[in-house]
Amino acid sequence: VAGENFDQSPLRRTFKSKVLAHYPQNIEWNPFDQDAVNMLCMPKGLSFRTQADNRDPELHSFIITREDGSRTYGFVLTFYEEVTSKQICTAMQTLYQMHNAEQYSSVCASSSCSMDSLASSIDEGDATSLAKLQRYNSYDISRDTLYVSKCICLITPLPFMQACKKFLIQLYKAVTSQQPPPLPLESYIHNILYEVPLPPPGRSLKFYGVYEPIICQRPGPNELPLSDYPLREVFELLGLENLVQVFTCVLLEMQILLYSQ
């Protein structure tokens, strides 16, 4: 388990993650930092879900800044895949049995009233809500399907956000599709790593993903630096007033700290 979150129910806890594979093994100008990439790909660690939870894929990005000021950019697609290990499913069931026993004993120890009086003090609406909460926050190995988080990540020298996002989504669709892609998955990974060059400054580059072509553009020497992040999301996350305040602080050269989960 990652961190001390034993008070949380097992499906709400996070577990230690690790890098399963990375390609290529190493690059002279960009050595692979396994611990940093692992932490930035899964900052909260592994998480488990059931069929009752939302399992839509999510994309996020990160930056690794080295001592010399050089940067590399990571783009991560996190998704959930079914747990096929009977051992892990049994372990989750055991964790829930232990958690429920602890919860029951703590309630009995802290309550001086009987279970009858406790039940009578809860109205029907609360009881229904409680039952729903327990249903969506429980795991029964004979009834539920267990899923675990997994991610695929692209690390690039420039922040080609949209191109990386499109490639990762297409790769994910190829992995999860019932129909195999036109070529083996290794072909697409080899292509993006070894055969797709950086576009020259001021030029665009079109390359083929798994299903559709992808275009990325690099600013020229006299243009503003590449900023491929959607501005609309900034407005949605911060709101207009906060964004104006942040912009004012930038113009006044104030220090700014953004804190987020």
TrEMBL record:
Keywords: Guanine-nucleotide releasing factor. PANTHER family: DENN DOMAIN-CONTAINING PROTEIN 5B, PINSTRIPE, ISOFORM A. Signal peptide: none annotated. Pfam families: DENN, uDENN. This is DEN5B protein. Residues 1-261 form the UDENN domain. Gene3D superfamilies: 3.30.450.200, 3.40.50.11500. GO terms for molecular function: guanyl-nucleotide exchange factor activity; small GTPase binding. The gene is Dennd5b_0. The lineage of its organism: Eukaryota, Metazoa, Chordata, Craniata, Vertebrata. The keyword Lipid biosynthesis does not apply. It comes from the Eukaryota.
